[in-house]
Write a structure and sequence with these properties.
118 residues; alpha+beta; three-stranded mixed sheet
Length: 118
């Protein structure tokens, strides 16, 4: 489902536009983001003999992705951490400051809740 959502987002954006992504700690989001906003890279060989390394997906250099990781105990939130996965914290904060926002996952959580109820 993460691939389908990112595919729709990529279709709506102008060519060359790389948005800032904010999400919870759900691991399939990173794979979906990198497959839509990345490229194949062939790693160099480490030795002269042996198998050639397999190509890998690498994110674009301008791609920014941050996560909000919540720690819960007894069904209550006890800690909220902000983690920058791709890019730098300063770059993420600069993009968010232009809108007066901060790292938040309200929209992703609302979408997930709507999908679960359907």
């Amino acid at each position: 489902m993460a691939q389908a959502v990112l595919h729709q987002i990529a279709q709506l954006l102008m060519p060359g536009c790389v948005p800032l992504f904010l999400s919870d700690g759900y691991s399939p989001y990173l794979t979906a983001i990198v497959t839509h906003f990345g490229h194949w890279v062939q790693p160099p060989r480490c030795r002269a003999t042996g198998p050639v390394p397999k190509p890998r997906w690498m994110p674009l250099a301008e791609l920014l992705y941050a996560q909000v990781v919540k720690t819960m105990r007894r069904r209550r939130i006890v800690e909220v951490k902000h983690r920058v996965v791709l890019g730098t914290k300063a770059a993420v904060e600069q993009v968010l400051a232009a809108c007066g926002w901060q790292i938040n996952t309200v929209f992703v959580e609302r979408l997930n809740l709507s999908l679960r109820h359907r």
